[in-house]
Amino acid sequence: MSAVTSAAHPVARRGRLSLASDTWRRRIVIGIVAVYVTLLVLAPIAALIVGAFGEGIRGVVNALAQPEVLSAFWRTIYIALITLVVHAVFGTLVAWVLVRHRFPGQKLLNGLLDLPFATSAVVVGYMLLLIFGRNGLLGPWLEAMDIKVAFALPGMILATLFVTLPFMVREVMPVLEALDVEQEQAAATLGASGWQTFWWVTFPALRWGFIYGVTLTFARALGEFGAVLVIGGGAQGATETATLYIFRALDERQYVGAYSAALVLGLLSLAFVVGSDLLRRKEK
Amino acid sequence: MTATALPVRESIPWGRWGLRALAFTYLGVMLIIPLAVILQDGLRAGLGGLWRAVTLPVAWHALTLTLWTAAVMALINAIMGTLTAYVLVRYTFPGKSLLNAMVDLPLAIPTLVTGVMLVVLYGPQGAVGGWLAQQLGWRIIFAPPGIILALLFITFPFVVRAVQPVLLGLDPEPEEAAATLGARSWTVFRRVTLPALALPIISGTLLSVARAVGEFGAIVIVAGNIPLRSQTAAVYVLGEVESENRLGASAVSVVMLALAFGLVMLVDWLQRRGSPGRAE
């Protein structure tokens, strides 16, 4: 800053001064946000990685290669895959009915659909226990028929289905709403059946909403914990999923096992979300 | 269906009713029946019974702990979320896209894993937690600060992603006019920018509270399960389910559901009320 110009133009000097203090204010604000995000998000992630590798790569591999850990992970993937298939079909169907049909109570139903987002996972598991548990609504009947739902995989799948219900519908609905119906009408005029029109005209246009919904559902299903704990019981070797294994390993102070499994589960879930995000960005 | 040759108008109603029935059955079985069952069970002993079950000391402490930690989280989240959104929209700096990606990260990480991460860092044996405990005598994990930390992590995207698009769409002219007229930038922010952001800040914050009321996975790891100390409502329900105290579990569940749904509906109402003004 030259003294001459500042003396000659007080207004200009004040402008430049406030510009300088603006730069400082900007640095301080960015700094606060950076520290916050580092302490809240980045440092814990880094700590988990360091913790998992506390006994080197070999420790991680050994911890994960135990049969109980592998079977817990496979159980998680199995539940998530079934959840994915059911929601892929029925979620698309519900989105279709909510967008294309008009019926009384539609707004209410549309609102109810978001309830799983706000329902505690423990409460979800407990609701299912009230229906399928030993003293539950259907308990005696299920026992007579020798069907096991509570403390077995079917109950855990139902719990995961409840928790992930909104994802598919909420991803497909906006795409369906934005879709031009003219192509469908053209196909129908040319003699295509409803199903043919859907499969060859509507579905390809929904593709990205569908893929995104499916990936989010899968990622969320992988990480479900509270609901499957309550309805499944977390019996080792029978109803223990990856999250339930982590919980038990922490309890038993097998820290490397818990941290390694948590790291893998986190990365797996993250990979699906980030992967579908990249796909979507590429498509646009 | 083999309705290929049939005229479209006649082939639709059957398929339409079939699809609708299928969709309703699915939602009924998956969503409405479970909710109805727990509502009925919680109100089995009437509203008085529900009130008595909820006001038992341990249950009451769990509920109030859940609410006050959620309130502290909401305050911090409202401020830091708005600040983060502001930085992301108005400033350019190295690492900005990394910061933007970081905001969504909590949504992609299972909350149980979140809990584990926080314990590793802030726990008594953790790098930061051990230091804080030795130097300052602060306890984060197995105490309310851990709960607040976990809630902040999980709900971090809520306020940022609510404020960001509104801030992006905000006309910078009133701000510039105020600055030209000599207003200091803090005054400009408080008088001009902040009122325009009030609605997204409030709705993002309320949604994060709705999310916090039911949170379990992260909290059970960072807070443990100590009745009258660090036991939150969701952890209390788990304990009552395990000890087969059905009324206690159902009553607290119904209160949690009512709180969360009430908040979600309030946000919905606020947004619908605010949207015509925004569309102008």
How does this structure look, described?
The complex is a heterodimer of chains A (284) and B (280). Chain A has 284 residues and is an all-alpha fold. Chain A folds into two domains: 50 residues; 218 residues, MetI-like fold, CATH 1.10.3720.10. Helices cover 81% and strands 0% of the residues of chain A. Helices cover 81% and strands 0% of the residues of chain B. Chain B is built from twelve helices and no strands. Chain B is an all-alpha fold. The N terminus of chain B is likely disordered. Chain B has two domains: 42 residues; 235 residues, MetI-like (MetI-like fold), CATH 1.10.3720. At the A-B interface, helix 2, helix 4, helix 5, helix 6 and helix 7 of A face helix 1, helix 3, helix 4, helix 5 and helix 7 of B.
In short:
The complex is a heterodimer of chains A (284) and B (280). With 284 residues, chain A is mainly α. Chain A has 15 helices and no strands.
Descriptive key words:
heterodimer; A: 284 residues; mainly alpha; MetI-like fold; 2 domains; 15 helices; 81% helix; globular; B: 280 residues; 12 helices
Output the CATH homologous superfamily of the largest domain in chain A: MetI-like
Structural class of chain A: mainly alpha
Radius of gyration of chain B: 24 Å
Uncertain runs of chain A: 1-16
Helicity range of chain B: over 70%
The largest pleated sheet of chain A is described as: none
SSE string of chain B, helices as H and strands as E: HHHHHHHHHHHH
* Total of DSSP H or I helical runs spanning 4+ residues of chain B: 12
Alpha-beta classification of chain B: mainly alpha
Q: How far apart lie the N and C ends of chain A?
A: 47 Å
Present the secondary structure layout.
The complex is a heterodimer of chains A (284) and B (280).
Chain A: H1 3-8, H2 10-52, H3 56-64, H4 67-100, H5 106-112, H6 115-118, H7 121-132, H8 139-145, H9 153-163, H10 165-178, H11 182-189, H12 194-222, H13 226-232, H14 242-251, H15 255-283
Chain B: H1 8-42, H2 46-54, H3 57-90, H4 96-108, H5 111-122, H6 127-135, H7 144-169, H8 173-180, H9 185-214, H10 217-223, H11 233-242, H12 246-279
Helix pairs in contact in B: 1-12, 2-12, 3-7, 3-9, 3-11, 4-7, 5-6, 5-7, 5-10, 7-9, 7-10, 8-9, 9-12, 11-12
